[in-house]
Amino acid sequence: MVIEVTGGGYSCIATMVNTSAYFNCKTDSVNNISENIEIRTIIDGTDQFVLSLGSYVKPAVVGLSATLTTTVFPSVVELPTKSNYYICTYYSEYSGLFFTDSSGQTSESYNYIVGGSLGSFSQISTYSLTEIQTISSQIVIIRSYYPTPPNIYVVPTTFSVLNNYVNPTPSFGQVTGNTLTVSASKIMEAQTLGTNVYAAPLLINQNDFYGEYPNYYPFGLNSYSPSSTSMTMGFKSLVPQSYQVISKIFNVQYYDNAVTTQENPVLVDLKYDYISGREMVVTAVATDDVSGIKSIYLFSIDKSYFKLYELSSCDIINGTLTSGVFQKLITYNFENILGNLRVMVVDHYGRTSEYSYLNAKPLPQYIYDFSNIINFRYTGIYQMKSDIVSISFKSSTMDLSTSPKNNTMFIKFQSPKPDISVALYFKNEMNIYYRFFIGDWNEDIQQMEIEFYLPSRLLTGSVFYSISYPGYLLESPYLNHLYPTSKLNVYSQDCDRMPPLIISNETFNNGSYFGFDLTINDKTGFDKGFVSIKSDLDEFRFNFTLSSQGKNALNDVYRLELPSFTPCITQTFSLDIVELHDINEAVSSYSNGMSDGISPFLMIMDSISVLPVSCTQFADTVAPNLSYLYPSRNTVNTASEDRQVSITFSITDNSAIYYNHVPYCMANSEGLVFYTTPSKLVNYTTTIAFYQCDFDLPFGFGYPSDCGKILFLLYGFADTRLNIKSTGNTIPGLIFVTFNNNGPIITRTSKMTSLGGSLTIYGRNFGVNPQNAIVEVSYRDYTFNYTTSILYSVLTVIDNILEKQSEFNITLIINGQRSNMVIIQTVYVQPLPTSTPNPTSSGSKCPGTPECGGSSNGICVNAVCQCKSPWIGSDCLSQVIVVPNPTINTTDPAIDNNFNTTLPDGDTVTLKTLISIVFLNEMNINNTLIKEHPFTTWIFTNQTTVNQTLSQQYQYSTNITNNGLTTNITITLQYFTEETTLIFANQLLTILPSSIKYNIKLTPYQFSSELNYLQLIMSASIESTSTDSCTYQETGTTNDSNNDYVKLQIDNNSLYGRFIKRGVIDNRVRTIENIFFNNNESTNSNSNSRIGINIPYFRKSVELDPDFSVLLDITNANDKDNSICEQISDKGLSKSQLAGIIIGAVAFALIAIISLSYYFYKKRKHQQLLNEMDKKLKNFN
């Protein structure tokens, strides 16, 4: 779609979202505005619609209210060739909009509201001037829309610029150094004379690509003396020798080898794996004939200079540079919505191959689907399919009158988007995006949540913002139209966007020190700043950091002092760079004579001080010499974590070292790669100074390298007469470099809270085979070996980090090689809510006779038994018994186990336990069955290893299909021979001996409704061969309230099933519900139950972990209420039953005799009392 605008004074852009078009038009010049504008939309050469809009009319009223005043800075009418000028306007009866519009200027102007409150505002309009021009300005006051005309006030001051500013350009003489020093070292050097050498980037070509030499002082400077008008420049670099290298600088060829590379590199495969939020792993396979792969990157032909990601040689994880696999973790951004993506592959010779298709198929999508964006390259117009339902804020109005405030944006989509991030952007006063915040999916509220803050004292009104997420870039005016709650307002009682200003700039020179005294003023408070001082004789800068701490933030003096030297040279110092911040985050800046916004020198532009320093003439043109250079090591492995290299060196001079004029160091590797750092002064006298440069070299620096070396160069050591020199032609520092990936390295981890959960571990050399990877996690009392749930060479993920830990240690073990140990500090978060027993009085009793089985078995706490090992159960009257290894069923995950036990009367009976998984049902919100999925066919795998002595492990897998999506169900069955402590859902679990544990995992399921849930049905039973047994069932919550349980008892034995109240749903621990179904199928010899595990709606995955044990109970089933026993008769009674009857009869007889005796005793005593009372009454009468 193309838009055409008819009518003067406006330029427009358009955004189309779904079926809506959003037009954004701005005025180009108020003097050329038409009364109406017409917007035509054209698609494929055909008009789609025409939109007519009324506009502001051409100014018809010229005048000024007495409530408007202006002040101009600077006050002179003839401005320097390169400068700013400002018009400050105060309007005390604000109504509508006002801005400054000027005629004659060739550069864009900016208008800022810098202060005021409702009804009265201050505005600053600024212009950057670099060309001959005469400028007249006018204040345009727009009170309303068409047909109300604006008011115009002409500013009486006219400015003139008399000369064009000419940018300095570098100038170099004839190159004199077509030399290649010591052949074994392969160092190439070019020398030349030049002026203005740092005015533009310095490019060095090598074959078909170029490198940018660090183009700022003092790099490349071989020697300089104030008596000379030019600098002697020297450029050194290392070049490979295994293939042809043609290096050029200033179009002069330096070096040519015989071996050539003929073929372009080839991209074989490309893969993107989403990790979380804004992270993904990029894996590429590429080949090259000779020089090897140098770079693989993604770009858009709309912005070819912008690389969305880049893999380099050091990202190789397998193979060689001529045929290898490259992998990198990238954090992607949404700042640029780009279409027309291409992948570029570059080799070390410089040959390239560009791909839009791979293996006759389109490239895999990077981050998002660009089909939402139409014709961006040619029209600059977005057309997108928005699926946002609503946008809102925690606080729709923010009061910023006194301090910055935090807030939260909420975005609801038509369908959940847990796998993306949304970026929220705000603009500054210059209409530049300067602050952004990244949001993440909130599973609890099913919305995107973006936490952000705004600085204090912003202008009252609505806030302009933009949001972007994969494939979308939307601005607040459009969003406010679609979603009323998306409007964000701020209020400031007294707006203050005026940045800190320097109101006085005084110089001083007391013989020992000289410098500047800056008086900094700010209405609400100066915060921090940076100032750089430079001499007119060289490019070295003395830098100062300012802070208001301990100062009067509203108005105070900040001293910048430099030491005086003897001998010295006459020179003039000036403030070259100034940047000041206030507590409201308003910024003033100044650099090299100009400001992009408001200058900190706004108030004193007519009198910015410079500081001349006069010295006695002293003839000295000899620069200092490098007398000593020593690297801290001979070899560095840049694939390791220890990549620190220190270069210690000393400088001598025949007069005086300018020791504050600190030198810089450069590390140089093959392929035109440079790394720089300033030196630190270690010690000094007048004529000798010792310095040290500390390098922390980037990972992979110097790889690949034919010569296997890194070149270190020194630049910018000087004497007090400003004779400056570098290592120049002297012997440079060389150390050997290797790139040996010897074992895993952990570089960082994701944040971890006290709730536990998943931990992402970042680093290198993690391998690609999960079978070879173990993460050792050491807690305070336990150490566990974790398997990885996700593994790449650059990261791995482990689940089930234990909750309630303040810190723990991790070590990654790959094929037996241990990584560095990392200590993880957790952030405390309020624990998940759990059910607790109802409060009871201290007098309430616990179950059991005696309570809790007596003091040896457990103790009673608030009517809940706390059992002592090995006793378990609600009454602590049960303990685990060892049963034979279960019979493993290879057709389905059912455990059908038989074992013998002895009854109290000495009879031996056989018990049979059966545990099985029956159905997976989809249920609706009303608990009505929607779809039943029975399990029919399972694939069995024995996962028990030879060294696995404490447990046996078997896996069963099957799948179901619903609404076109296949869901995989994997059940891992483990039998434990000994007591074991495990972690599930971030909590410790004690697995009893002879226990069977089911680990159940589900992949995504296509629900019929997001309100539905799944119910996994399990069946458990215990059966006796005895015909005179009793059975008993018990369900409830364990003593720690974390688990539900079912207990199926026959006589003195029970099958005990524990069902954790937690599950891992979409990689998050969530509370789940367990249902125990009532049934009437149990008999005196068979106790069975069905259990339903309710699984809430999920998108990715589910993991459950029930377990079962066989118990010996002290209390027989026939002694418990509601037990089921065989009807007792005279015939065929068992010994135990007869014993029970006899004991019962004897007990009854004894109770009867005692009761009758007590009755007659009480009757006799009662009669005696009546006789005594009768006697007393007679005496009374």
TrEMBL record:
Pfam families: ComC_SSD, DUF7034, DUF7035, DUF7743, DUF7949. The keyword Heme does not apply. Residues 624-727 form the DUF7034 domain. Keywords: Membrane, Transmembrane, Transmembrane helix. Residues 846-880 form the DUF7949 domain. Residues 495-615 form the DUF7035 domain. It comes from the Eukaryota. The keyword Transmembrane helix applies. The chain crosses the membrane at residues 1138-1161. Residues 262-360 form the DUF7743 domain. Residues 911-1111 form the ComC supersandwich domain. This is EGF-like domain-containing protein.
